[in-house]
Amino acid sequence: MPRPEGRGVIMRYELFGTLNQVGGRAVCDLDDEGPEGLEWPLVGPVCGRIALTNTGSSINAHGYLKTVMRMECSRCLQPVEVPLDIEVNEECALAQIDSPQPPAGDQIPLLDEATVDLSELVRQMLGLHTPLRVLCAPDCKGLCPHCGADLNRGKCNCKQDDIDPRLMPLKQLTGQ
Ligand SMILES: [Zn+2]
Ligand SMILES: [Zn+2]
């Protein structure tokens, strides 16, 4: 499928108008920088393949996305690269992404022209599949709750009479 030159955040693909007709289908191969507005930066491009099909009532987007997100360990705050491998099966609408009137229901807007813009679809998919918490290692010792030292690099000089910092999130969770 021909596509605009170069990589860019806009994720636009030429469609030759086929998607405007019921049964119309277009396949977009992605190898782009991520869209803006993500909670965490991406380490590499967003790759994948999305097939768009006009079902009459909406545009079905079906395929997969892969990328790597740079998050922070929930315990020690060191950077952690998190691979994302996402299956996509979403209903979209042919509507201007920046239209003041959002499309009906849960549909994700695409451009209704000779090109389609997948950036909003990709942004929503990445947001939906971003883990809430990641760890740099299953046994990460975290930060000292008193002095903030990274306990993976050795003990600090604080008195270790408090609760094991690894249990802190559990303690916060149960509100004790
Ligand atoms: Zn860690
Ligand atoms: Zn300490």
What descriptors fit this protein?
176 residues, mainly beta, 5-stranded mixed sheet, two-stranded antiparallel sheet, 2 helices, elongated, binds zinc ion
SSE order and pairing:
Blueprint: E1 12-14, E2 25-32, E3 46-54, E4 59-72, E5 79-94, E6 108-110, E7 115-117, H1 119-128, H2 168-174
Parallel strand pairs: 5-6
Antiparallel strand pairs: 1-7, 2-3, 3-4, 4-5
This protein binds zinc ion (2 copies).
Order of helices and strands: EEEEEEEHH
Strand content: 25-35%
Query: How would a crystallographer describe the biggest sheet?
Result: 5 strands, mixed
Enumerate how many helices there are, as a single number.
2
Envelope shape: elongated
Any low-confidence stretches, pLDDT <50, length ≥5?
Answer: 1-10
> How far apart are the termini?
57 Å
Briefly note the structural class of the backbone. mainly beta
What is Rg? 22 Å
As for the number of domains, it is: 2
Oligomer: single chain
Report mean pLDDT, rounded to a whole number.
80
Bound molecules: zinc ion
How many strand units? 7
> How are the strands ordered across the major sheet?
2-3-4-5-6
What share of the residues lie within helices?
A: under 10%
Walk me through the structure.
It is a single chain. The chain is mainly beta and 176 residues long. The chain has 2 domains: 12-128, no CATH class; 141-176, no CATH class. The chain is built from 2 helices and 7 strands; from the N terminus they run βββββββαα. It has helices at 119-128, 168-174; strands at residues 12-14, 25-32, 46-54, 59-72, 79-94, 108-110, 115-117. The strands form 2 sheets. A 5-stranded mixed beta sheet has the order 2-3-4-5-6. Strands 1-7 form a two-stranded antiparallel ribbon. The chain is elongated. Residues 1-10 have low confidence and may be disordered. One zinc ion binds next to loops.
